[in-house]
Amino acid sequence: MSVKVWMNFDPKKVDLDYLIKRFQGLGYEVKAEAVPVDHTEAVLEKAMEADIVIAAMERWDEEKLAAVEGKVRFIQKYGTGLDTIDLEAAGRHGVAVANVPGANAAAVAEIALLHILNVGRKFSSCVCGVKSGRWNSTITGTEVDGKTVGLLGYGRIAKNLARMLKGFNVNILAYDPFVRTVPKEDGVTLAGSAQELFRQSDIVSLHIPSTKETKGSVNAALFSQMKKGAYLINTCRGDVVNEADLAEALRSGQIGAAGLDVLAEEPPESDNPLLAMDNVFISSHMGAETFESGYRSQVIMGDNVELFVNGKLNDNVRNKEFLKNV
């Protein structure tokens, strides 16, 4: 019986050539068709036609996973974050779930660096101003050199950002409750707590996953610890930040500016106060999107799927402890 794969992506918008050719070469039936991630019926309709789902940002909760039990056997997330998939429920319903760790780390780190440079120099405002007829040569910004950059979380993306920052004259701090030591060559000093990191940093960049414990954890309590006028960068997940608290900290000047590639709701509602703030710079969750990271990701995804079809679960399958009847 042929293996059927559904990819929740539009091949006109996402280059899926590598995966499509690889899967077809293995004799799989492949359908690449995007449906709105918040349309449960549409997601389930497509998923029920497949054995394997290449998932975008649609949410796979108990209800959806129960509905596809006995049909979908493997969900491959296009990316690292698994906050949209209930891993335990997937295991109960016989669905293995894999991600793509590390393939986009350098790409996301570059966007974090771009936001760090932009919040200080207001580069995007200047570029947009020139195109709209304003030649504002008096925009005065702040340099990265001489600053302390704090990394909340020290996984692959943060490590890549630390590597990139070594070209500047900066002090790099990191706090990660799961990291006890860092190699000397990283040039990073570990802080004793998140509070210490926020107190000492001129720029704080977030690199933590979205979990029950971290959602909303970057809030007024931490913002109050920051140096007045410090900058906040977020390229991980929007919901780790309490956006109401962030907006208030930006209004009061406690935080000087924010550079965000992620929001709690994407795309945001038009009345999101962050959209109207001159000291907030928002990009459209594009951090991972490079040709290079896309290719690396698809190679890993292809490996994950092929191994699964051949009866093997590699280390990228993240819910092995919950799996039944796989």
Principal-axis shape: globular
CA distance, first residue to last residue: 17 Å
Q: What would you report as the Rg, rounded to the nearest angstrom?
A: 21 Å
Q: If helices are DSSP runs of H or I spanning 4 or more residues, what is the number of helices?
A: 11
Nearest-integer average pLDDT: 95
Query: Which strands sit side by side, in order, in the main sheet?
Result: 8-7-6-9-10-11-12
Strand content: 15-25%
Report the uncertain regions: none
* Number of separate strands: 12
List the helices and strands in order. EHEHEHEHEHHEHEEHEHEHEEH
Tell me the major beta sheet.
7 strands, parallel
Can you walk through the features of this model?
It contains eleven helices and twelve strands. The protein is of the alpha/beta class and 326 residues long. The strands form two sheets. Strands 8-7-6-9-10-11-12 form a seven-stranded parallel beta sheet, with helices on both faces. Strand 1, helix 1 and strand 2 form a beta-alpha-beta unit. Helix 1 runs parallel beside helix 11. The model has no long low-confidence stretch (mean pLDDT 95).
